[in-house]
Amino acid sequence: MEKVQQYPVCGFVPPYILSAIADSAIAKSDHVGENSRTACKHTLEHGVSYATQRHELCARTQQTLVAEEATLPGTVQRKIYSCNGTENLPGSLVRSEGQVRIKDRQVNNVYDGFKITHDFFSKIFGRNSLDGRGLPLIGSVHFNLSSTPEGYNNAFWDGEAKQMVFGDGDHISFDFLTDSLDVIAHELSHGFVQFSSPLEYEVQSGALNESCADVFGSMVEQWHMHQSVDDADWILGQTLFPVAFTGSALRTFKAGKAYTNDPVFGTDPQPKHMDNLYKESGDNGGVHINSGIPNHAFYLAAKSLGGYSWEKAGKVWFKTMISGKIKPNCDFKTFAKATVDIAEEEFADASVQNAIRDAWVKVGVL
């Protein structure tokens, strides 16, 4: 029997963050209350259960979504739904392509963020939506669990339903996830990964999946803000935390940590070198943790090359992902070698290839 391809549910907020808040000892502190603890606990549990149940859920969802026609190159087709505080997907259609703004900031943010992300891939890389074939962009906002009235503390890409889902946050540990362009662009970039090189969502291939979503999500924001590699802050998730968090962001591409000795989250676990590779089983073998290594390699390459990140380093990463060289179980070294080879193919100037090779050497991959 032919193996059925199963696509992951990719959440923006890592399970180790949700676990830290859900921990009962932390919940008793002055920083996080019982409502936030409950919200994070149920959000974490949902991430596991949804992944196992999504075949049935997708059967319902696809009746609504799969009939959408592909769009012409350069055009975007968006449909934004509202779950109205429930877990019923996709929810009620509230804004379609070309319709005017409505009195719902979360709907409008997703509608706008989808266009920005679509235009980045189209105008910079000539890609016709996430799949290269005009895939409509579908998003559901105001998603929440019946067991958790406090708020759903995550956003995720559902690879089987080919859509994005956004919670509103509990407004204690997390604010509206739709307020962050980098969250929207990151999760949509998981869709690009799925349709270009569907990296398995575990260990190093899963970390590459997360890293590519970070890389392209960051480039989308930099492009939208007209930021050079020197102007960009190179951090992700900096607007998600209304109260509890004292760090600068959820993740950073730069050397060092995004947060250290935070009273709730502790210290950022992401390594920036293979010497510190996470080797435990949590987080699907560290997909949100070890992604720090290829993230830092991209940052080093982009900074070395200067200008805009998408012009050279970003182009190499994009071409690598659509090259057919990246297998589902690809590891860091294989991916790194592919980027070096692609750099040589795409740029006559050897400095691009050298910068990318040097970046991977500095993080201990090559």
UniProtKB/TrEMBL annotation:
Could you confirm whether the keyword Hydrolase appears in this record? yes
Q: Which residues form the Peptidase M4 domain?
A: 80-194
UniProt GO molecular function: metal ion binding; metalloendopeptidase activity
- Keywords associated with the record: Hydrolase, Metal-binding, Metalloprotease, Protease, Zinc
Q: Which GO BP terms sit in this record?
A: proteolysis
Q: Can you give the residue ranges of the Peptidase M4 C-terminal domain? A: 198-365
Q: Which domain of life is it from?
A: Eukaryota
Q: One Pfam annotation, family name?
A: Peptidase_M4_C
Concerning its family, UniProt says: Belongs to the peptidase M4 family.
State the protein's name. Answer: Uncharacterized protein
